Structures are given as C-alpha cells and as structure tokens.
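We treat protein structure as text, and this decision shapes the records that our systems exchange. Below, we set out a record of this kind in full and without editing:

***
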Amino acid sequence: MPTHLLLIISGVLAGPAPPPVDGRVQKPQAFIVLSRCAAPDVADARPDDLVAAVAAARAALDALPPADPTAPRLRLRLADLQIAAANDALNRAYDAYQRALEQNPDAPPPAEPGLDIAAPLATLDAFLRDYPKAPHRDLALMWRGWLRQEKGADDLAAADYRVVGALKASPLRAEALFRLGNLAFHADRLADARAALKPLVALPESPFTPLGLYFLGWVDYRDGRSADALTTFARLVETRFTDADAAERAALFRPEAVEYLAIVLAGEDDAVDAPGAKQKRHLAALARWGAAHPTLRVEVLGRVALLHDELGHARAAQAVRGLLARDAP
C-alpha cells in the first residue's frame, strides 16, 4: 500500500515555517487571527504604523479609570494590534533571514526568527482575568489559544479551545472544536480528536464543516473504523456546501477523500485476487457501495481497480472493471 500524506491546506492550519524550496526560505503565512466577524467593533481596520498604534492604544488604556466601561474593548483592541505588530515584525525578520542566506550561502545559517507573543499574551491574560463578564471572551480565548499553539504550548491552547467549544451560542464554536480536534489528531489521541470533531460536523454548516469531515475521516481510517471512514469521506465529497468558503475547502480536500474511499474499499487482502468466496464478497461489497453512492460509483470503483493493479492484484482489478462494465447504466 503506498504511503499517503495528510493534506495541509495553506492558510487553514497554523504551523512552523515551510521548508526551503531550491535553497530559499519561504515566508510564513500572515499571522492574522481567526473569525473577525465575531467582534467587528474590536478588530477594526489595521493602521499602517502598528508600533505607533500599539503605543497609542496602551496610553489610552493606561489613562482610563479601572472601572471605565470602554476599557474591556480597548484592551482587546490592544491585543489585536499587538498580534498584528508581532506578525509584521516576524515577516520583516524573515526577509532579513532570507537575505542573509542568499548573501552568505556558505556561512553557518542564522538563527531562524520566531514570533514574539509575550505582549499580546499578557494583554489577553489581563482581559480574561479582569473582565469575567465582558463581551468577546470567546474571541480572547481563541486568540490566546492560537498564540499558545504557535509557541508549542498545545495543552494550554487546547484548554482555551475547549472552553469555547462548549459555548453553544459562540460563533467561534465550530472553529474551536476543529482546532481542538486537530491538536488531538496530530498528537495521536484519536479518541479525543473524535470527541471534538463529531460535534463539529453535527453543527450547522460553516467553513469548518469540510475540515471537520476530512479530519474525522482520517481519525476513523487510522483507528481501523472502516465503515465510519467510508461514511465520513463520502459525506465530504457528496455534500453540496452552500457556504462559499466551505465549498472551496471541500473542493480542495475532494481528491484525497476520493483516494481514501478507494483505499478503504480496496483493502489489502491478497486473497481477493484469486477467484473464490473472498473475491465474490469483495465484489458484492463494492456493488452495494456503488449502488448507495451512484454519483461516485464510476470514479471511486475505477480508482479501486487501479489500486488493485498497484498492489499486484491483476485478477481483482479485472474483476472490479468487469463489475463496472456489467452494472453500467
């Protein structure tokens, strides 16, 4: 069975800087955080001079009495500006890092730059500590969770995502459940990943629905739950998403979902290559699946035949092609 790599969609998952390509270091994706629609009054348009904007917001906050009703919003705005400033500094550091590599290719490489999260993390800690009933606590928790995840504090990040994932009224709930499931998935905690992803895919459609289905299918596949993996990957491919972002993400994941449908259906049993009871059961199972999924039948079963070819199961491949020809409309 060939090795298949997990697809990572650019801009969806935060991660370390990508590896060099042809000796060049690629800049990381912009560190612009999460669902701004949850707090449009907080995440306003970004000023050109972020350093000055951070200083002005800090000065304004310091001038307010502690009980001023505008303080919570201003502190969250400060955190937003600090995150943007940290990302801007990181991008400029990567530019310098790139130039250093290009100008001195034979010299020892300079230290790779990292994101400085100390200032926004302190601001978010203070917001969550001082304003237990303020609006947008869910947004503050998500921002803090992502900052913690960016620095490798996955357990602390998961704690923040878990709180938001339990808030049924939060517009960030779907994203929190996805990030919680994604962390567990990459830590090989499959039961924890399933516990987060199953509630996600049961929520009303959002841009995170196809992501949840994709990773839940992977969890089921890795956990040996073949029937569940087939159901989940088929739902991802067959669903006609109405949300534009969800539809775009589903289209990106579609090729791998089809591939894994075929992998699960093909199996790895060499006995199916010989005419007999096992091959008959294999073909009957494929016929049932194809009848239940007519829009995917030709594409997926055709790929099953190719997988049998790759596995050296020439007679099984021929039998699957015969099934396709026999049952063609």
